[in-house]
Amino acid sequence: MIQKKVCMVGAFATGKTSLVARFVHSIFSEKYYTTVGVKIDKKTIDIQSNQLNLILWDIHGEDEFQKVRLSYLRGASGYLLVIDGTRKNTLEKALELQTRVENTLGKIPFILVLNKWDMTDEWEIETAEIDAINQKGWTAIKTSAKNGLGVEEVFQTLAKKFLDN
Hints:
Shape: globular
Oligomer: single chain
CATH class: Alpha Beta
Radius of gyration: 15 Å
Helix content: 25-40%
Number of domains: 1
CATH topology: Rossmann fold
Structural class: alpha/beta
């Protein structure tokens, strides 16, 4: 079995914990819980005739990148860069975080997760901004931890990137 560490990275309240809960346990809670430090979950998936054990590190959301977080990233095979589409500033924070993560770990697979797609009436991210991200060659996937849209796809896509590397 192949084991891969995946870090959930993003500003606070973007839905990192909810995405993990939806993926691992198929649940969603309306209650907001702040992650303190890191919460670790795991799930085994079958992909391309391989079993992958994904170790999911749900790292506390911060608007300031702390040294302690850099130590959480060590050993990661990839990461999910999570934004809240109803808060434009989380995209700006994600762009900064991506640079810092890459400076720390080098170029490893990641996916930009456009979360809270179930709230499109409150969406603040413009289509042109998503197009600009796609032009960088990044993979961006729309998700909703609330209704499950795209959640499985995000983890499956990242797992495929692991196998293709």
